[in-house]
Amino acid sequence: MNRTLVWFRRDLRIADHAPLYRAARRGAVIPVFVFDRALLHHPETGAARVRFMLDCLSALDDDLSERGGRLILRYGDPVKVLPELVRQTGADGIYSYTDCERIYGRMRDARLNRVLAEANLKIRWFEPVASAAELMPYPHYRDWWYQEMRSPMVPIPPSVTVPEDIFSEPLPNLARLDHLDDGKAVPKCGTAEARRLLQEFIAEKADRYYWRLSYPSAEATTGLSAHIKFGAITIRECVQTIWQAQDGGDYRVSNSYQQLVSRLRWGNGFTQRFRYLPQLELRSLYTPFDDDGWEFDEALYTAWQQGQTGFPIIDAAARCLQATGGWLALNFRSRAMYASFLSNLLGIDWRYGALHFMRHLIDGDCPIDHYQWAMQSGVTHCIDKSWTRIYNPGQTAVDRCDPEGSFIRRWVPEVAHLPAGQLGSSPPVSGYPAPIVSYAQARQRRISQLERQRDRILTAPNVVPFVTRLPQDLTPFGADRYPSEVAWSRLPNTALFPAGLDLDQLNLEQAKTLRTWFVVHVDSGAWAKRQRSRPRSKSPSDSQQLSLLTNLL
Ligand SMILES: Cc1cc2nc3c(=O)[nH]c(=O)nc-3n(C[C@H](O)[C@H](O)[C@H](O)COP(=O)(O)OP(=O)(O)OC[C@H]3O[C@@H](n4cnc5c(N)ncnc54)[C@H](O)[C@@H]3O)c2cc1C
């Protein structure tokens, strides 16, 4: 009987899983997950996320068991473990999805390719849905993404036969992986749970999501982020489920569906940017933003991390992140305001913020997190000034995002006695700090700085020379602050798989194509037409949702 090893990484499911399905069709399967210390002890790894991953592995094992299989667990460097396992089990080769989340993973996969080729062993890589090898203009990617979402899902294999003689390590706990539990409650995991969350969204949240996703206390979002991060459910399954759901002719529901599909697309778009430019994990997109200007002040950084800035909405976000890991409780707008405060108002390099987020977020996903951080810090767009997201963290933010003050009161008990109208700029309160920065001055300073930096790029005929290159030193940011295992970054051969773009080899046409990924695109066409033909109603308007940012500036 044929035997195929299926290497699971962050695709912890059996549904819509091409490598597993294909492997099961050709014969016996060896479904394997390898605990790799380079990832478990990357400076950006957080204990709560590891715990959630362990639960996902347990759920995957259950799903495989229901089909007669089981998950095989191993420890070590996959570049050594996998070829050995292929030899020991007599497998014909390995099936796996490519993954562009991190430079480390891409270096490891390139090393694995070399080692397998030298040993005459085979690996077949599958492209995840909506991951494109070729450079295409962003508007084409957007159209192609919708096509990919429409394509049929891969069936679940009816049975999975795992040879009996293959040994598996038991599922470890955090201590076995040298992590300390930091006390965060992790959500229930598994494909069934992800599907339940999606159905709950359709049944109970879709009439308000579009308008309420900026309110931290509304909990109007799906809660799917951590499940998507570990691949317990695919984006394609989420999108197809939403497309099949009825909106009952209620435009509030259809707006929400549309908004959620767009957000799912954004997530894929960030991963695709990282596929082209893996250096975005380590640097800002354009060099002038990193060359000049960040200042680091340990005391300010600590105050920001600990929720002691004197701005209650920022401190609520800070404490919520540390206590909950952000899942469901820390929505997009709260993350954005909290992020913008560090880089724009305190002038601290966004990478310190992204590092802190990744160490706490249960849904921490490097391309989304790092690119969102860079966006909120104003360093992804060199022309469009509307891409300067400096939120007013005072009363304006409270009125817009937490008008009743329930989010603030929950996390900042020191000010809980104040009326909502004073939660933005509270009078002196014993035991609570005064604001650590003047918003007006800091904002002005940041705007002038961004204008100076953007001017350097604006006057250049071609922006590609300003696009950051993959640095020689691939040591992850934060390796000097936290104990971590980064010996891999000093290996001599730093080839990546999939490879990123070689910026120095791009012709003019390709440079223009790449540029389309980093300018503002307004969704137009069919969607705008639908909006125009929709009857007016007294329900909350689109502008109420979309104007939020402008009002916060
Ligand atoms: C500074 C900053 C850092 C962030 N870091 C992460 C992160 O590490 N991981 C992460 O999944 N999201 C991140 N986000 C995006 C967003 O805040 C979360 O996706 C969302 O809060 C997750 O909750 P949900 O699944 O209930 O959201 P929903 O609104 O229900 O969204 C469903 C899914 O769509 C995707 N999505 C939603 N909003 C965005 C967005 N703005 N950009 C990209 N994808 C989006 C995510 O996959 C999300 O799970 C970050 C946002 C900011 C501003």
From TrEMBL:
A Gene Ontology biological process term: response to light stimulus
Cofactor names: FAD
Membrane-spanning parts: none
Binding-site residues for FAD, renumbered to this chain: 209, 221-225, 363-365
Free-text remark on how the cofactor is bound: Binds 1 FAD per subunit.
InterPro entries xrefs: Crypto/Photolyase_FAD-like_sf (IPR036134), Crypto/Photolyase_N_sf (IPR036155), Cryptochr/Photolyase_FAD-bd (IPR005101), Cryptochrome/DNA_photolyase_1 (IPR002081), DNA_photolyase_N (IPR006050), Rossmann-like_a/b/a_fold (IPR014729)
Any coiled-coil regions, as ranges: none
Region Disordered, residue ranges: 530-553
Official protein name in the record: Deoxyribodipyrimidine photo-lyase
Organism: Vasconcelosia minhoensis LEGE 07310
